Amino acid sequence: MTTLLFGPAVLHFAALAVLYFHFAVVLFNVFWLVAVPFGAWFGWQFVRSFGWRISHLAALVIVAAQAAAGRLCFLTIFQNELQAASGGAAPPSLLTRIVINVIYWPLPDWVFAPLYVLALAFAAFLWFAVPPRRPRRIRT
Q1: What pTM does this model have?
Q2: What is the helix (H) or strand (E) element at residue 26, kind and residue range?
């Protein structure tokens, strides 16, 4: 039973799920860094959503803090551990290779901390330059 639940194929699938979730987080962070200034320019109201903007800022704080501390992203660590535990169950598909190349750039580690801190600083600037709408209070 344990082999069925945590066999190589299941671990490989879990590693892929973490990889694709990581990719979604990267897309989310990049999207909001681009959408907010363009949205302000074109008058798009969705870029002023408090919930999305605070989620974006929180995600960038986590990313920048990990990089500034010299640590790998916890999603990268988790994915690598799952992939190692699976024993490399299958070669990566074309889509998986593309996602890996989008997420993991072949640059020295020291490049990423300043890049992520700069992204966080830009998002913080956008918070004030294009302020989100305050959430509505629910009346009881």
Answers
A1: 0.87
A2: helix 8-42
Q: What angle is formed at CA 126 by the lines to CA 124 and CA 131, rounded to 5 degrees? A: 105
Q: Are 119 and 32 a contacting pair, CB within 8 Å?
A: no
Contacts of 45 (CB under 8 A, 6+ apart): 39
In order, the DSSP letters of 80-125 are HHHHHHHT--SPPPHHHHHHHHHHS-SS-GGGHHHHHHHHHHHHHH
Q: Is 137 helix (H, G, I), strand (E, B) or coil?
A: coil
pLDDT digit string, tens, across residues 48-70: 999 999 999 999 999 999 999 99
Q: Which pLDDT tens digit goes with each residue over 81-105?
A: 999 988 876 778 899 999 999 999 9
